[in-house]
Amino acid sequence: MSSENRSSLIEPRFLVLAGLILLAALVRTIDHGIPNFAPIGAIALFAGACFGSRLLAFVVPCVALLVSDLMLNTSRYVDLAPTAWALVPFTAGAFVLTVVIGFGFRGRNRSVAGVFVGSLAASCVFFVISNLGWWAVLQMSLFEIPAESMGTVYLKAIPFFHQTMLSDLFFNTTLFGSLALAESRFEVLRPADEMRPVETA
Fold first, then answer.
1. Which of 40, 64, 159, 166 has the fewest Cβ atoms surrounding its Cβ within 10 A?
2. Whole-prediction pTM
3. Nearest to 189 by CA among 29, 54, 52
């Protein structure tokens, strides 16, 4: 890790961003009973759009995702753990792509309209890749689950897609809104290029 990235770890902005992502990841572990209502896409988009370091934009949310996966797969989903772990590469792939999408909404592009578009894009990416992963898992003889065609998998997933979109919109609004509120009150939390220069006598 470069000295620039190491110094970023002690900056107030980094601590706030990492804290918001950690809280969102912990929310994912709560059993609220609503299918596909999780902050995965929002965490990735938020990290890509808000971390100054692109390396940290990948590392921090990926660590949060891994920690929440460990918590879920060793408790609530313990009976489904083999299937859940088999899906991790696909979930991670969608996650990384969403971080990259977030790069397009940095700085001035981080507007309400930009977050809305990014949120919908993240939902579509997760829908396509996660269901591709589910189809691939069904083809494995390791799991006692009847195999289905790819078309059938996607058709069965369509009724749940609106949950993913609403979830991403809700959590993106919460994350970006919380950061915007904090930035408006505390200048130290704003990106370096948006901070006013210190006046000297």
1. 159
2. 0.84
3. 52
Q: Domain ranges in the chain? A: 3-188
pLDDT in tens, the chain (201 residues): 555 555 566 689 999 999 999 999 998 888 777 777 889 999 999 999 999 899 999 999 899 888 888 888 787 766 666 777 788 889 889 999 999 999 999 877 788 999 999 999 999 999 999 999 888 888 775 556 666 788 888 999 999 899 999 999 999 999 999 999 999 999 888 886 654 444 433
Tokens for 179, please give them: 């950061």
How many CB atoms lie under 10 A from the CB of residue 185? Answer: 8
Please report which residue ranges of the chain form alpha helices under DSSP H: 3-8, 12-28, 40-50, 54-73, 81-103, 112-139, 150-185
